[in-house]
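Morning!

As promised:
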Amino acid sequence: MNFVLIFLITIFSLSLFFYGRSKTKSISIQKNIKLNALPKFYGYYLVLWCSIPALVFLTVWSLFEPVIIKSIIIETAANQGAVFNDKNEANLIYEKIKAIHLGTYFGDIDSILKESAISYAKFLNLFTNSKIVLIFAIIIASVIYSLKKIKNNNKARDDVEVILKGLLFASSLIAILTTLGIIFSLLFESIKFFSVINIFDYLFGTNWSPQRAFVSDASAITAEEYAELKDAFGFIPLIAGTSFIAFIAMLVAVPIGLFSGIYMAEYASIKVRRVSKPIIEILAGIPTVVYGFFAALTVGPFFRQVGESLGLTVSSESALAAGLIMGIMIIPYISSLSDDVINSVPQSLRDGSYAIGATKSETIKQVVIPAALPGIIGSVLLAVSRAIGETMIVVMAAGLAANLTINPLESTTTITTQIVMILVGDQEFDSPKTQSAFALGLTLFIATLVLNYIAQRAVKKYREKYD
Amino acid sequence: MTKEQRLKKRHSSEKRFRFYGLASIFVALLFVLILVNNIFSKGSSAFMKTAIDVEVFFDPELLELKNGANEEEILEADFYDVTIESLLKVYPANTLEEENALIDLFTTDAEIEIKKAFLEDNTLIGKKINLEISASDDIDQLHKGNYPRDLPEDRRRISNIQLKIYDNLIENKKIIKNFNNYFFTNGDSRDPELAGIGGALVGSFYSIIICLLLAFPVAVLASIYLEEFAPKNKITDFIEININNLAAVPSIVYGLLALQILLATIQLPRSTPLVAGITLALMTLPRIIIPCRASLKAVPPSIREGALAVGASKFQSVFHHVVPLALPGTLSGTIIGLAQALGETAPLILIGMVAFVVDIPSTPIDPSSSLPVQVYLWSESAERGFVEKTSATIMMLLSFLIVMNFVAVYLRQKFEKRWN
């Protein structure tokens, strides 16, 4: 149906374009007046007026139609005596009703379902019909309006440009909408979660085992159940594991990244730079799932073997393997950012240092790096934020159980791993376990936001200093 | 310490420092090499599969078909007896145990492969033909040398009897290697020898196309607005801060967004390339806007002023002159953004693309997998055969990424104008 409507709108718009163009031409000849714009702009004007309101309406309508029909149908089914206790059962009944309507349901059909299916068909019909009528009404109204404007010889080009500018502005608003969407979707479930679990129990609890958190009725939790729940959602082991793995990653990435950044910026000839820079940046382009596969199937077992031959017990999902691989993934972020930052240190600082007899490395260590330090710290912070938000490497190579440990040979878990573990497969909405994933997501979002903000400020301040 | 000694020390420290820099670059390069080598050495064998040469006799007594049967009759017919009879002739099995071991050497789809041969030529009743029937995963891995033979029998999946039969077949030159077409045409399967990335390829293709269709126009329009038209005010600043932050939000957060808004609120179908495409588009949008703006910014103001000077409107100067000049940079930024989206896994896991999907999706609203998710799924499987399949999938994924990046670099170098 929607495709037919879009097709019709396109056809209308196209024919209006030609109509508008020739009409204004003929008006200008008949009445012998000078047009305020080229004839084609009158065509564009009509096209925009014909298509944009109708398409916007169609999109909004199509987004909300299924949701509205569903709530109406579930309500009427309930009025007719259908029994369902929670959202899942209601969804099930709705799916049944839909299947009966499509003729693909082969179970028993009782009178309530049958009635509901009939009313479903009725509503569907009603909504489709009113959609068509409304769209045509909108098209007719906007076309009449725009035709009237054209006949008055409006400044079509200016008007077209105003509309297009609005369109440009609307596209740039999508960024804000996405941010709002993220914040609302995280907050909405998190608030539900924190209405069950006290936020301090979450932030300072030392035990994370959401699989234990089975609640029969989320709206009425007894004190006993809460004591159990409180113990299941402690954030400390997760933040400890996340920071620990990120720390190992930084131990690998910061020296290697920084030294290669320095070498590229200060020592490397143009030839070496042209070859080695893209190759290092390949590391940033490899999908993280590939690193995860490599860490889980090659590096983890390798460490385990080495450990066994040394008489150590190494978990095959050790924090060391995940951290090491994550560090390698992060090298290019640090090296190319610090390369940029070092390049933008003014040459006069170096020349001054050489002039008093310092060697190149002394200049770098004592002049260039202190001057570039805010920028370098900024790039390291950006890398940290990437490390704590990284998902696939830790999901595949780090452990699932939340151990509070600082032994890099043991397994530990991270925030992102837990989000994936909770949400993978079928989840029941309205259970604290599912909601906890959103609370974790919110925590992660805030943490990366703060880190990025500080890092970007640092880099920006530093840039301004030497501009 | 004398002056000479001190100078010597300073010079050696200079050399050391330089060495550290070179060593770091070397370590990074070495790692690229190790990773690629590891993946290729594990994965390249997956493009071949092991098959066993079987003489199939379409016995009229065992088949309820006549020559010239139509497609429907063939599809409904039972080829089981013909299959078993033919497979048993490969090796003179004496006991029931040996017969079972022999049949286990073949893929569970042996019957379907024989049926397919008959579908191609429906005049085979009463005739004998030689077919190359795929071996089971265990034999496949054994033949490729990925499976240690010297383990004690209770720790390996291949019994001693099977090994004996295998050696006999090798001697009679009945075991062959041929191109693994299943890997490219089949969907996912529990049996590694039948599993393929066909479904994942199609799913990834749909997702990326939807991502491109949504993200590219919006990103270009938004960057044109921000770079060329936006007044310097608080709203513009706010939009810019938003875009920069969105580019740094962890991808898994976009998965949560999609779960809550696209699946729970708007109720789009789960596990589909449609949802994946929209999610990836939201994620890629800021990552495309940033290079788009940079390439618009690189166009010198003289171009705009020249257009304005001969009477073009602001819009005409931007759309007729600035945008075409910035297009190569814009396109290469978009392609790099899409390459990142192609390798993205975490948000797709959250929207349910980890479901086990056997069928190859025909539309973007069929449940489907995608290449990186397939890597994740197979890497979790215990069967040895999936290791080479996973590596081969990674090889496919990496080669797509390499091609996309080369196109991006080519576009930039070939068509981008240098202004100074």
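Chain B has a mean pLDDT of 88.

Hope this helps with the figure draft.
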